[in-house]
Amino acid sequence: MRNLKLFVAFAALVLAACATPSKPEQDPLIDSPPVWIHLPDTVEAANKDAPLVTSTVAQVEHAWWEHFGDPTLDTLVKEASTNNRALAIAKSRVEEARANRTFARAALLPEVNAVGSVSRSNQGLLTGDRTFNIAEADVQASWEIDLFGRNQAHAAEAAAILESEEASAQAVRVGLLAEVARNYFDLRNFERQLVLTRQNLETQQKTLELTRAQLQGGYASDFDVERAAAQVSTTASLIPDLQAAYDGAVTRLNILLGYPPGSKDALLKTVQELKPLDPGIVVAAPATVLATRPDIRVAERRFAASISAKDAATAELFPDVSLTALFGVQGATGLSATPWAAGLNLAQPILNFGRIQSEIDAADARQHEAFLNYQQTVLEALGDMEDALSHYLQENTRNASLAAAVGQNRKAEDLAMQQYGNGFTSLLDLLVAQRNLLDAEASQAASDANLRKDLVAIYTAAGGGWKE
Description:
Blueprint: H1 2-18, E1 52-55, H2 71-83, H3 85-106, E2 111-121, E3 132-145, H4 150-216, H5 222-256, H6 265-268, E4 281-284, H7 286-292, H8 294-315, E5 320-332, E6 335-337, E7 340-347, H9 355-421, H10 427-461
Parallel strand pairs: 1-4
Antiparallel strand pairs: 2-3, 3-5, 5-6, 5-7
Helix pairs in contact: 2-4, 3-4, 4-5, 4-8, 4-10, 5-10, 8-9, 9-10
């Protein structure tokens, strides 16, 4: 009965030591605004044609790339999520942190080792000048009783670090998918710019041919021919830079997908028109965004880990208590024994010349730093979203104006061509109209891409994309 009571008491102590409650979520002590500055309070308060609205019940969109309705982009996201090296590195760090947590938790449990030895010796007078064979097998156990919570604090710190690494991997995925989308829309922009430039170059070459014909008929001068030829050369000079930019976007996407340059060119160089964006995109409220962003989770968990680290440093001031036990069998020539031992060890720091206190002070400073970093991350997250919303709304207005400008310049170019052919306007007017049309079309193409990249920035600022 007495042995049973001892066993129950021992088991209770083990279970108590194994309990490693994780630090609860920490408050950054920053009140998030109820609504975004640049958006209406609710969906109902917004104009039905508003490009963006907010809702307190809306959730963060994780599969945001699907809203662009682009099969190629969907494929790129899938490939990057599977093969990107930076994401694989982040996942490896998670596995390392998980192993460190297991190691920290193991310190809470007893350690049992089996030890065996065999020897043959003559120890002179001690053995009567005789040779003996000695064999020994022992089971040794030791257990540090974590009375003051030092090991529990280390285990809680390791658990918080693991959670921060998991959130870091999520943040890497969010950034990766955003980078893939941005480069993809850059690719489509350069692709469109090349098409427009070549189309305008073809039109300008026809103008040059018409001007040369008019020179033969005496209706144009050498000056007119040279001016038209200069326009052709200037437009042609745009193509190499655009082609280099296009090739660079293709290369970057190959790398982001985790492949050597050229591996995915067949997929990337397939022409794909950008589909119109959905009107009235709903954005989650600030509180939802802050609760979703993985970088905020990283900062919060690192702050929690710093709290546990300070607790562990403080526990160094208290005694280190451990139990030890040994049981074995020993055999020698003609003899046998069953050695055993049990003990209690206690070590109390007395004189360490401020070493422990300095470690506590350093841990306290790191905790304060982690808290400030947590607050800064929250503030930057709010700023990221406000900036993204503003850029998207302003670009949306600019895009509408550019679309109108393209239509107007196209009509002006048609009229200038007709009037020039009939001798009612000068070559300069026609060249200016052609140049204005090219500039307007190029600006609209770039705005179309920027509008989509700004929308990606909104999804990224909201913390979308980390759930697979």
